[in-house]
Amino acid sequence: MTRGPLEIRSFAKINPALAVLGRRADGYHDIETVFQAIDLADRLEFRESDRIGLRAENLPGVAEEENLAWKAAAAFAARFAPGRGVALTLRKSIPTGAGLGGGSGNAAAVLLGLRRFWEVDAPDSALEEIAGALGSDVPFFLHGGTALGTGRGEILTPLPSPARAHLVVVHPGVHVPTGDAYRSLRLGLTSVRRDPRINGFCSRVKEGEPLPAEIFNDFETSILSAHPPIREAKEFLEARGAAAVLLSGSGSSVFGFFPSEESALAATRETARRTWRVFPARTLSRAEYFQSMFG
Fold first, then answer.
1. Per the confidence metrics, is the pTM higher than 0.85?
2. Does the active-site annotation cover 124?
3. Which of 27, 45, 105, 243 is least surrounded, with the fewest CB atoms within 10 Å of its CB?
């Protein structure tokens, strides 16, 4: 019996707090960061096929086998369904290389989607193992909501679900390679320590209450000075009344919190720069994350 297609949404994230502790001996960096899922989303479609294939819309120049979504499908099949195939269609809305976790979210959504599409008994622990091998941010997108990420970001501690927040995300049309962003910090090898700013931020994340206003990102000092369009995007949101504005991840997107959905939408309508992509969004709790992904 041929089954019909499965369609799901693959969400983005922001980082309202991010501390880089230092470089590790393996070349990666230890970080402490707070992840927050938002409803800016790509769309994934799963159809039956005799091979694993991927068609990506709005993503030119990326070979099928180089896409994290395809790698996730191949890894899942090798572990749980050898020889099975799926035709994936990825419709991109989240800008690539924007610090919003679009590719990582796609990979996690493929893992969760294939478990449902193929009706495979794949435990969460196995998905987390595959996700960690695919990328540092991928494990977060298996859970969504709000979480503390340590290590490379892959070690997760769930945090309480704060009140829904409305925000505007601006991608200013420039790309900041992740490696360049880390090199710009000029860090030595990691010392064994925790960042007190992260501890303080997490202690103020309360169930049903607004996210703490004391947001921060260690990349801002070097990234904003090196990339004027990112600084201009941040100034744009500040001038439109955003309560707090921050670089997301290692860039290049910035986000700002607004007091209401109406004020966020008003800010998006005022954007005039042709190179910018501007998105209104809202935060997602863990429950909303899965309801919206499969709903």
1. yes
2. no
3. 27
